[in-house]
Write a structure and sequence with these properties.
The protein is an alpha/beta fold. 36% of the residues lie in helices and 18% in strands.
Length: 272
């Protein structure tokens, strides 16, 4: 547990060497990286997997969210651990915070790998609207309503076992985690999504070397659409690349952990 102002952050850590910070998605927690973190650590890295505010076993004195809450939390944890600069690997909700750090505090980011989320400079097109189809239900989420549907074939090409889904969702037995669902989407996800749609980040230049990875079966961000919305990256980013994973959809780390690990290590080597 890492104590910062108003927050006790649960952190899973493995390995020694250059720090790698892995930020999980929703509705997941540090355990999302169970197949990837050990493989990265085995190559000589110190892998740090925090439970973000409202997830896992992290405890917040203030249950509310603002657009930059998790971004600020991550920076506070890094400061508490004495880490000035790190590689980042981020998925879904965690990629929102990673992207914010890349733009607001680029000196903290050695390299960035974003999974299943487009870069901040994306061009908005109606073709990506289906990526937001799950949001209304989460904005109206009520305690006790199952989130199991988020792991449907629409989002994962491999059927996750009941044990795996339970591993992600059982933590919602904690009132603090269950109550955070609507607060997270209303306070952070929706405001940042509106920033993306309005071109907020297109007025800034992305400094850290960034790799955006998508599953080929991730409909709203299938390769033709992803390449279209990122087509002017030379003007918007210092160094940016796209990669695509076969037989994978939104939940890349469950669909294809070995392929994702290989892409991460390759990016660290080439861009770090």
């Amino acid at each position: 547990m890492v104590q910062t102002r108003g927050l006790r952050t649960h952190v899973a850590e493995i390995g020694e060497g250059e720090p790698v910070v892995m930020l999980h998605g929703f509705p997941e927690h540090w355990w999302q990286w169970r197949a990837i973190a050990p493989a990265i650590a085995a190559r000589g890295y110190r892998v740090i997997c925090p439970d973000l505010r409202g997830s896992g076993w992290t405890e917040a004195a203030d249950p509310s969210f603002g657009p930059d809450s998790q971004c600020d939390d991550v920076i506070a944890v890094l400061d508490a651990l004495g880490i000035r600069r790190a590689h980042f690997v981020c998925h879904d909700m965690g990629a929102i915070s990673g992207m914010q750090i890349s733009y607001l505090q680029p000196q903290r980011v050695r390299t960035m790998v974003q999974l299943s989320v487009p870069p901040g400079f994306m061009l908005f097109t109606p073709k990506v609207v289906p990526a937001f189809a799950h949001m209304p239900a989460l904005l109206l989420h009520r305690r006790g309503r199952s989130l199991k549907g988020l792991f449907s074939p629409r989002y994962a090409t491999r059927q996750l076992s009941d044990a795996t889904i339970d591993g992600y969702l059982r933590v919602h037995d904690r009132a603090e985690v269950e109550n955070a669902v609507t607060a997270l989407y209303r306070g952070m996800v929706i405001p940042v999504s509106l920033r993306l749609m309005s071109g907020h980040y297109r007025r800034m230049r992305l400094q850290p070397p960034t790799l955006a990875v998508f599953g080929r079966q991730d409909g709203p961000f299938a390769e033709p659409i992803a390449r279209h919305i990122c087509r002017d990256h030379e003007r918007r980013a210092e160094r940016f690349e796209l990669a695509f994973v076969d037989d994978a959809a939104h939940f890349l780390t469950d669909d294809a952990p070995e392929a994702v690990t290989a892409l991460i290590l390759d990016w660290f080597e080439r861009a770090g």
